[in-house]
């Protein structure tokens, strides 16, 4: 058994409401934790006890230094330190992510998210591929806003495919912009979370920030821009090729998507799936793959993602078995 002392200033943060964080750490590390005053009494494998000691030690130091650590942060960095014991949380909080005026600091919550942000800084085209809730779009847009405010680019372009536009737009009320807005709403929501709504509206009105369906990219050359293509699994092969060849001088593109949620009509090849095979070997293009461990939404989302993966894998196996029987 290992005894870990917790400074009084860090008890509320580390324990969590009704010891919620301690229960999370027990599950994550497969240890048993009991409390005795300011101490944690930990029983488990020596390596797991040592990992818990590192987590508690680093988080306690940050709290004592005045860092604001939420319950979500405790869970995220705990996961982080189990993946890589060499992570220094102080450097992680100080250097990771972006500070956006009037908003909370946007920091990576997993190693893959950290690699994603680093890839965006270092490469002109980055693909972020993985399930819902892994921060692919949110982090890309945070980087885009930070680059615009730092004057590294002169505009932001946010694009999304309108999968059903070919059949249903004509039946929707309003002009073309009003027809496509429902497909672009998630991008507006994320943008308004990054900056003041009025400022965002002014930048959109000036054309400094453009939110549009991917079809609006055709025939353009995008210079000095930070371009984010969201829901790229729903692009066609032609749309993806068109988008990737729009990039001009001084520009950066981030492509996000989840290849398990393709909504294209039957028989159409996903442009994202094809791009992984076609441009995956080109130097200067980075691919970051997320999984369920990177999910940072409600705790149930991670379990839901895993459940669907297990279900899909089971059905795939059944299909193969049925096929061989016939």
How would you explain this protein's 3D organization?
Mean pLDDT is about 85; it is low at about 165-170 and about 320-325. The protein has 13 helices and nine strands. The chain has helices spanning about 10-15, 20-30, 45-65, 70-85, 90-95, 110-120, 135-150, 165-170, 175-195, 195-205, 235-245, 270-280, 300-325; strands at about 1-5, 30-35, 40-45, 125-130, 155-160, 210-215, 225-230, 250-255, 285-290. The termini are far apart. The longest helix is centred in the last third of the chain and has 27 residues, at about 300-325. It has about 325 residues and is an alpha/beta fold. Strands 6-5-7-8-4-9 form a six-stranded parallel β-sheet. It has a three-stranded antiparallel β-sheet with strand order 1-3-2, with helices on one face.
Topology:
Layout: E1 2-5, H1 8-15, H2 20-29, E2 32-36, E3 39-43, H3 46-64, H4 71-83, H5 89-95, H6 111-122, E4 125-129, H7 136-149, E5 155-160, H8 165-168, H9 176-194, H10 197-206, E6 209-213, E7 225-229, H11 237-244, E8 252-257, H12 271-278, E9 285-289, H13 299-325
Parallel strand pairs: 4-8, 4-9, 5-6, 5-7, 7-8
Antiparallel strand pairs: 1-3, 2-3
Strand content bin = 5-15%
Characterize the largest beta sheet: strand count, sense, and whether it forms a barrel: 6 strands, parallel
- H/E element order: EHHEEHHHHEHEHHHEEHEHEH
Total number of strands: 9
> Which oligomerization state do the chains in this entry correspond to?
single chain
Compute the separation of the termini in Å.
57 Å
Strand order of the largest sheet: 6-5-7-8-4-9
Query: In angstroms, what is the radius of gyration?
Result: 22 Å
Overall pLDDT metric: 84
Tally of contiguous helical segments: 13
């Amino acid at each position: 058994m290992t005894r870990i002392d917790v400074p009084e200033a860090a008890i509320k943060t580390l324990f969590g409401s009704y010891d919620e964080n301690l229960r999370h750490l027990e599950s994550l590390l497969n240890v048993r934790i009991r409390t005795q005053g300011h101490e944690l009494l930990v029983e488990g494998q020596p390596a797991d006890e040592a990992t818990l000691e590192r987590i508690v030690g680093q988080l306690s130091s940050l709290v004592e230094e005045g860092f604001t650590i939420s319950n979500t942060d405790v869970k995220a960095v705990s996961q982080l330190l189990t993946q890589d014991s060499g992570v220094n949380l102080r450097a992680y909080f100080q250097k990771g992510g972006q500070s956006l005026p009037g908003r909370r600091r946007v920091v990576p919550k997993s190693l893959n998210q950290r690699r994603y942000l680093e890839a965006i800084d270092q490469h002109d085209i980055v693909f972020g591929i993985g399930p819902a809730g892994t921060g692919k779009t949110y982090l890309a847009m945070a980087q885009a806003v930070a680059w615009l405010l730092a004057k590294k680019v002169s505009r932001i372009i946010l694009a999304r495919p309108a999968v059903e536009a070919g059949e249903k737009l004509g039946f929707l009320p309003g002009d073309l912009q009003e027809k496509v807005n429902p497909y672009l709403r998630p991008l507006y929501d994320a943008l308004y979370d990054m900056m003041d709504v009025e400022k965002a509206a002014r930048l959109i009105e000036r054309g400094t920030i453009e939110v549009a369906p991917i079809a609006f990219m055709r025939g353009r050359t995008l210079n000095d821009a930070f371009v984010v293509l969201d829901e790229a699994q729903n692009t066609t092969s032609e749309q993806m090729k068109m988008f990737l060849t729009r990039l001009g001088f001084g520009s950066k593109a981030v492509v996000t998507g989840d290849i398990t949620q393709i909504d294209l009509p039957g028989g159409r090849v996903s442009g994202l799936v094809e791009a992984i095979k076609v441009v995956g070997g080109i130097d200067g293009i980075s691919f970051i793959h997320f999984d369920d461990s990177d999910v940072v939404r409600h705790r149930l989302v991670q379990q839901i993602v895993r459940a669907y993966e297990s279900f899909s894998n089971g059905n795939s196996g059944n299909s193969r078995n049925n096929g061989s029987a016939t």
